[in-house]
Amino acid sequence: MERGIQDIQTIQRVYLQTLIQPGDIVVDATAGLGRDTVFLADCVGPCGRVYAFDIQEEALNATRSLLVKQGLDPRVELILASHTELLTYVPNGVKAVVFNLGYLPGSDHQITTKASSTMKALNSVIKILKPKGIICLTVYRGHDDGMEESQTLINHFSAFSKKDFSVFQGRYINQGELSPYWIIIQKNREDIE
Ligand SMILES: C[S@@+](CC[C@H](N)C(=O)[O-])C[C@H]1O[C@@H](n2cnc3c(N)ncnc32)[C@H](O)[C@@H]1O
Description:
Layout: H1 10-19, E1 25-28, H2 35-44, E2 49-54, H3 57-69, E3 76-80, H4 86-89, E4 94-100, H5 115-128, E5 129-139, H6 144-158, E6 165-171, E7 181-187
Parallel strand pairs: 1-2, 1-4, 2-3, 4-5
Antiparallel strand pairs: 5-7, 6-7
Helix pairs in contact: 5-6
Bound molecules: S-adenosylmethionine (SAM).
S-adenosylmethionine (SAM) binds near residues 34 and 112.
């Protein structure tokens, strides 16, 4: 909160903090350096569960040490796998899912989230999301894969039925076309395939 809305995740986090209740199941689909995992672990409380995915061991090690430092590691399952495998690890009834897209800061920029795997993971996780559960995406358009991912996401989610899903975008209107933005997708009701 230190930087207010200069930080692209502030608004998402305010809503996540309100929505997530002690004991909930949530997912960090891109653990990275662990900041989102720590935030989610704090939100779910000691009886909740966070499933955190990353394809890089380096990322999960960074996440683990941040969690251990804060005594939050017992609430978190760290999974070295792509988020496309999410349904293998995560039970039904998820309250919130966070995708902070792109690459690990300070690491190989070629190892980044991609449009096709991000879409596969999103289509899977929607199936196990609770009604009024949400998916938060932070999207970075400043690199080639990120631009493709952004266009795929916008095309796909703009066509979603408003009865079934509410899809809400937040972007800076004074920071140019390549600035990051967020999307929050809420599953409006139970019986959606
Ligand atoms: C921007 S970073 C995430 C930042 C992180 N949430 C944090 O709080 O520090 C994106 C991460 O996504 C990971 N990633 C890329 N493709 C992935 C995939 N298919 N499944 C899971 N993680 C993936 C990268 O390894 C990288 O660590």
